[in-house]
Amino acid sequence: MSERATDVSREAATWLERREREDWSDADNSALETWLAQSPAHKLAFWRVKGAWSQTERLNALRPTAAQKPAVAPSRKTPTVLRFAAAALAVAAVGGFAASSMLSGPAYKTYSTGVGVRETITLPDGSQIELNTDTSVRVAEASLHRNVVLDRGEAFFQIKHDAAHPFVVTAGNSRVVDLGTKFTVRTETDRVEVALVEGRARIEPLDGNAPTRIATLSPGDVAVAEKDSLRVSTLPKRDLADDLGWRRGVLIFRRTTLAQAASQFNRYNAHKLIVPDAAVAELQLGGTFQTNNPELFARVARDVLGLRIENRGGETVISR
Amino acid sequence: METGGQNTDPLRAAMPGVEDWFLREIFPLEGLLMHFLRLNWRNKAELEDLRQEVYVRVYEAATKELPAQPKAFLLRTAHNLLVNRVKREQIVPIAAVGDLDEFDAAIDAPGPERSVIARDMLRRLQAALDRLPPRCREVVVLRRIEGLSRPEIALRMGISTDTVSEHLAHGMFVLAELLYGENELGRNT
Q1: Domain final residue pick, B69, B89, B105
Q2: Is the pTM of the predicted complex or chain greater than 0.90?
Q3: Which end of chain A has fewer CB within 10 Å, C or N?
Q4: What are the residues whose beta carbons fall under 8 Å from the beta carbon of A35, sequence distance 6 or more?
Q5: Same domain, B73 and B17
Q6: Who contacts A79 (Cβ-Cβ below 8 Å, separation ≥6)?
Q7: Nearest residue of chain B to residue A32 (CA atoms)
Q8: Parallel, antiparallel, or unpaired for β A221-226 and A229-234?
């Protein structure tokens, strides 16, 4: 009977570990070669343990979860004033912004984030607004009217309830009236999405006289308002939490197509992911990824789905 | 001659034909192979040894010519090995070794999508990591995710570099079992 397989596997792992050490020498290497040449079983065990270990490179993608490290944005620790300053700087960095800010008049203060940046604004009443990547909001300065306009992007609102002064978020053609809540609002061209995490809120059209477009939301509800329609669906808690992964700096995918994943990453990064082939774009992937590392995602997609990636300067092309 | 620098990124390193073929085609089927062996072999203590022997036989064939249908070839090899063992050792009647075609058809039927396998691998990685002994897991995480060197890990955890190595080697061994085989080893620990 040959050597026990378990012993051979353990020995292979010991070799692999030694080979990864900083003091691995040529002499060590010859010793390893000798061991490998002793029997195919040695060689196979070494390939096998090496193959499995190389798979763990993907653990990188699970970083926040696996390391159990709460990914707190450093900006949260900076004093409010500094955060405001940072937000103001970000405003300056966003082109074409000044015009809309002037239109909005002096009663509003504008906060913006650039691509890949997150900021938290604390309002005088203690309410907080977390701005996601490439986002712009205007906040009414008069404390009597708690009005916020989401001009672009996505924000998470944690609102201190005040029945006398309802908090109103305007986005696209819709208005969200808060009844003491935590919720997110995301606006794209002709589309506003509101997801309610806690409390209650009402979404209604700006023109106000279309009863079919008014809905009161409960936790878990996601309302999507488009030009002339309003759809409300209820998401499982987990999915809602996934969608809020950006607050921790991560994107969480479950059965997500490459097309969707790429468009998510592209919201956060100047370095774009391109998936030209329609069939490839439909392939699905899951996992937790840092928003700011599209190239790691591309590598994982390559390894997991057996694709090819090509870095072309400002973009990475993923293809078959 | 290989250098340490090249070794740090085995995924990107060019692998010679047979090794590459094993990584791509054979090791990912280990769960299936173990399932087949478990179903058809009574002595569970011998499963790993049988696996090793199957791999060696597949390897010997592959060095001559890479089999065109890896899965069929792997299972056929396993089947033949079991049949020969039964004949040789006279332990159980030959009928005890299940019909391969039937088994093959059964496993072919609900072929998981590529995306399912992909999701599975990430999930399995995470689950495998969770199943490592705590200190071992910590070392693996520091090494693989934080990218710390052996001395840095030793310093961080207040243990010797030799102990770091022991944990790492054990982690490598167990992860191979869990990722490829999903076999009893992991469940017992």
Answers
A1: B105
A2: no
A3: N
A4: A11, A15, A42
A5: yes
A6: none
A7: B2
A8: antiparallel
Predicted ipTM > 0.90: no
Position B185 in a domain: no
| Token code pair at residue A96 | 């074409």
Q: Residue B122: list chain A partners with CB under 8 A.
A: 58, 61-62, 286-287, 300, 304
Chain B hits for A9, CB-CB cut-off 8 Å, are 48, 173, 176-177
The token pair at A89 is 């700087």
Separation between Cα atoms, residue B165 and residue B154, nearest integer Å? 9
- Rounded distance between C-alpha atoms, residue A244 and residue A71, angstroms: 13
Give the DSSP H or E segment for A37: helix A26-38
Farthest-apart Cα atoms in chain B, separation: 58
User: Do B90 and B50 share a structural domain?
Assistant: yes
B186 within some domain: no
Q: How many domains does chain B have?
A: 2
How crowded is the C-beta side of A242, counted as CA atoms within 13 Å? Answer: 15
Say whether residue B176 is in contact with chain A using an 8 A CB cutoff: yes
Residues contacting residue A279 through CB under 8 Å, at least 6 positions apart: A320
Using alpha carbons, select from A223, A217, A180, A220 the residue that is nearest to residue A202.
Answer: A217
* β-pair partners for A205: A174
Contacting residues of B for A311, CB less than 8 Å apart:
none
User: What is the per-residue pLDDT across B36-46, written as a single tens digit (0 to 9) for each?
Assistant: 888 888 788 88
Integer Cα distance of B136 and B148 in angstroms = 14
pLDDT in tens, A172-220: 888 888 767 888 888 888 888 888 888 888 888 887 666 677 888 888 8
Residue A146, phi then psi, degrees to nearest 5:
-90, 80
